[in-house]
Design a protein that fits this description.
This protein is of the alpha/beta class. It is built from 12 helices and 9 strands. It has a 7-stranded mixed β-sheet with strand order 3-2-1-4-5-9-6, with helices on both faces.
């Protein structure tokens, strides 16, 4: 897991990446574990989801390699932090009742190694992952302004079935994949969360806190941002995409994976 990525984009990360209650509810539903259970949160970031689960009675082992991200976490007696990567989880075998990964999988340096570590610490599952497969979703207007960034996601995010297979590994595992259309008022402002409010992409802090834009060449982001700004000012953007402002959901390809030993 590349901690330098979030040392770069993690400044004021909590201001835009608040845990969304709908994502939390789905994580709890898929974990299907009683409060008091211990959950490993891999790639925990600033601890927004770890703290949200802690507030629901769970105990968390938060694994995050970026010290800058960890320092932004609000202390919680139910959350224990570890400055480590997904490929080297500092927990003993079968030491947690469940594992979660929330929008962090694409930053793992080796998904097979991370999956092996997750199975080691939770050999029966459940392992619940929230991630993206752009092949599964509708093509967003975002592609018209930031095509290089959009196309890169096809390399950053493997096909969802392949991801599920890698996480489950060999043996008898049940693999469940569920769609998660983005809500119109998502509080965890990932790169596609502005599907119905394009003006958000003009905000430098928003762009800084989404890895796809923060790590893209500056010329690519500047060109797309200037074009979008012009289209918003002239009304061209709303002529083409204004109907999205009235939609409640948009399927950008976000998916939940649950792997459980059978």
């Amino acid at each position: 897991m590349n901690e330098k990525v979030y040392d770069t984009i993690g400044v004021n990360y909590r201001s835009n990446r608040a845990a969304d209650r709908r994502i939390i509810e789905k994580v709890i539903e898929l974990l299907n574990l009683s409060p008091g259970s211990t959950i490993g949160d891999i790639g925990a970031g600033t601890g927004n989801y770890a703290n949200a689960l802690a507030s629901r009675g769970y105990r968390l082992k938060a694994i995050e390699p970026s010290e800058k991200m960890q320092k932004q976490a609000i202390p919680n007696d139910r959350v224990e932090w570890f400055l480590n990567s997904a490929e080297s989880i500092p927990l003993s075998d079968d030491s947690v009742d469940g594992v979660i990964v929330v929008l962090a999988l694409h930053h793992f340096s080796s998904l097979p190694m991370a999956a092996k570590e997750m199975r080691r610490t939770c050999s029966q599952g459940p392992i619940v992952v929230f991630t993206l497969d752009p092949r599964q979703g509708e093509k967003p207007w975002f592609n018209n302004y930031f095509p290089e960034v959009y196309q890169k996601d096809f390399k950053s995010f493997p096909p969802i079935d392949e991801v599920a297979d890698m996480i489950a590994g060999e043996g008898r595992w049940e693999k469940i994949i569920q769609e998660f259309p983005l809500r119109h008022d998502l509080s965890d402002k990932n790169m596609y969360s502005g599907w119905n409010k394009p003006e958000i992409y003009l905000d430098p802090q928003f762009r800084q806190n989404v890895s796809g834009l923060a790590l893209a060449p500056k010329s690519v982001v500047q060109r797309g941002t200037e074009c979008l700004k012009n289209d918003l000012q002239t009304g061209k953007c709303d002529e083409k995409y204004g109907h999205l402002r009235n939609q409640r959901f948009f399927d950008a390809g976000f998916r939940f994976i649950k792997c459980l030993k059978t």
